[in-house]
Design goal:
By secondary structure, the chain is an alpha/beta fold. The protein is 53% helix and 13% strand. The mean pLDDT is 92.
Amino acid sequence: MNDALVALVAGAGDEPGIVIISGTGSIAYGRNARMEAARAGGWGHIIGDEGSGYWIGREALTAVVRAGDGRGPATSLTEGVLEHFEIDDLPRLKVVVYDRELPRKAVSALGPIVQRAAEHRDQVAMTILEQAAEELALSARSVSDRLGLGGDGLAIVLAGGIFPLVPYLGDALASRLIHRMPGCRVQLLDREPAAGAVHLALAEARGELRLPNYV
């Protein structure tokens, strides 16, 4: 039983649907009425995890050093990143990232900084979050196409720690999903994913548990 299925059940119950998870990593997972499942993403931070907190943070760091080099546009992210890491100048950022072996969670923690910059119409920050939303929407559409999901009322659940911290991402993603899958119902998971595990455990206790198979 995987975490994505648990999150989907927490948000959509026994209905067919799709869950898009953006935390330190990212994945889209879906299940149809025929108990078939599909996923997109979830490949880890080195070769994937587009649209995740880590991806957003890494893109912010890249934008900051590009701006410092004059290879990219100036951005208010620079001030936010330096303040976040409690350093005074950009060259010290390299020390923070490499010499301290910056963990993935520390990179993901830059998400709220990108959110604040986007709220102030920083074009670099807005572009990062729009690209993150696009990547997650592509993953969801891939899952939808393979499972034949669509139509009015399709549940699409947004889960993971990044959506509450970076609401711009959820709004941009929901806009894309509604445009590309008309009639879908996009909702932010408003309960603990563990509720899905309880639901599945009760179904198993009644002898009614059916787990989907990947297509």
